[in-house]
Design brief:
286 residues; alpha/beta; Rossmann fold; 7-stranded mixed sheet; 11 helices; 9 strands; SAM-dependent methyltransferase; methyltransferase activity; SAM-dependent_MTases_sf; methyltransferase; transferase
C-alpha cells in the first residue's frame, strides 16, 4: 500500500501540529473504541455511578470518562496530549451550561499536579492506557493522584494480557524489531509494546506496590481489534504511539510498509481486519 500524505504526517517523528491532530483524531475515531469492553467491565465491577468522583489519568480523548459520566459520576481527566484532550472537551463539554454547579467535567493538560483542588476527594482513579501502566515513570503521577483520593478508594491499572491470547502481539513485534530492541527473555509477557521496560505477568501488581497501593482483585476482558480495512488498521495502530520509537529509529514509510505486511495475516475475505485480544485490569486500594 502506498502511504498517503496524511499518514506521512501521522508518522512524522517531529509530531508537527497537523500530524499530531490527525493522530489524535485517528485515536478517537478508530482505536479508542477497541477498549470499550475494558471500560465497561471496570465500571460495572466497581458499580461506578452517582456519588462517585472519578479521576482518569492519561484519559486520552475521554471515552472512558464519558461512560462514567453517563452512569452519574462526576469526572476529572488529565492527559499530556493537548490534541486528545481537545477532543475530550468536545465530548464531555459540548455545552457546559447543561451541568449543575460542581458537576461539570474537568479536564487538565499534563498530570494530576495540574488539577485545581476543590477539597473533595476522588473515589475512583483509573489508568485506562495499558502502555502507561507498563512505565516505571507512571509512579509520580500515581502518587499525586492517590494523594487526592479518599482513603480506601479503588485505583484501576490496565495492561495487555498474555501474548498467546493477543493476536495483535505479532503485529506489535514490528515496533520492537524496528526500534532495535531485542526480544525479551523469560516466561513473562515480554517487552511492553513500544516501551523500554519488561512487562511481566505481575507488572500491574508491581506498579501498585511501588505506589503504595494494596491489590484487591483483577480481571481479564476480551477486547478484539476490528477494522474496516487495512488503511484503518494502520492508522488506528499508529495512533497508539506504540510505533514512535520505530519511526524515530528508521523512517515513516518503512514502519508503515512493515506494519501493513504484518496485518495481512489478520485480513478476512471481506477485507476487514480482526485480531482477538485479552486485556487485564487490576483493582488496588489507596
Amino acid at each position: 500500500m502506498t502511504p498517503t500524505l496524511v499518514q506521512r504526517h501521522h508518522l512524522s517523528p517531529t509530531r508537527a501540529p497537523e500530524g499530531a491532530r490527525v493522530r489524535a483524531r485517528d485515536w478517537a475515531e478508530i482505536q479508542e473504541r477497541m477498549l470499550v469492553p475494558l471500560y465497561e467491565a471496570v465500571h460495572q465491577r466497581l458499580e461506578t455511578g452517582a456519588g462517585d468522583r472519578v479521576l482518569g489519568l492519561r484519559c486520552g480523548s475521554g471515552l472512558a470518562l464519558l461512560m462514567a459520566a453517563a452512569r452519574g459520576a462526576v469526572v476529572t481527566g488529565t492527559d499530556p496530549d493537548p490534541y486528545r484532550l481537545a477532543l475530550a472537551r468536545k465530548r464531555l463539554l459540548p455545552d457546559p451550561a447543561e451541568h449543575p454547579p460542581g458537576a461539570a467535567p474537568r479536564l487538565y493538560e499534563g498530570g494530576p499536579e495540574a488539577i485545581a483542588e476543590d477539597g473533595r476527594p476522588f473515589t475512583l482513579v483509573t489508568v485506562f492506557d495499558p502502555q502507561s501502566c507498563a512505565d516505571e515513570d507512571l509512579g509520580p503521577a500515581l502518587d499525586a493522584a492517590t494523594a487526592l483520593a479518599e482513603r480506601g478508594s479503588p485505583v484501576v491499572l490496565t495492561g495487555w494480557g498474555p501474548p498467546e491470547r493477543c493476536a495483535t502481539s505479532s503485529v506489535l513485534r514490528v515496533a520492537t524489531r524496528l526500534a532495535g530492541r531485542p526480544p525479551a527473555l523469560g516466561p513473562g509477557y515480554g517487552d511492553a509494546p513500544g516501551r523500554r521496560r519488561s512487562y511481566g505477568r505481575d507488572a500491574l501488581e508491581e506498579s501498585a506496590h511501588r505506589a503504595g497501593l494494596r491489590p484487591d482483585g483483577s480481571g481479564r476482558v476480551s477486547c478484539p481489534f476490528g477494522y474496516a480495512d487495512l488503511d484503518s488498521a494502520v492508522r488506528g495502530l499508529l495512533s497508539t504511539g506504540l510505533f514512535d520509537e520505530a519511526v524515530a529509529a528508521t523512517d515513516p514509510d518503512q514502519v508503515e510498509k512493515e506494519l501493513t505486511e504484518a496485518l495481512h495475516q489478520h485480513r478476512r475475505p471481506d477485507g476487514t481486519i480482526w485480531m482477538p485480544n485479552v486485556f487485564r485490569y487490576l483493582v488496588a486500594r489507596v
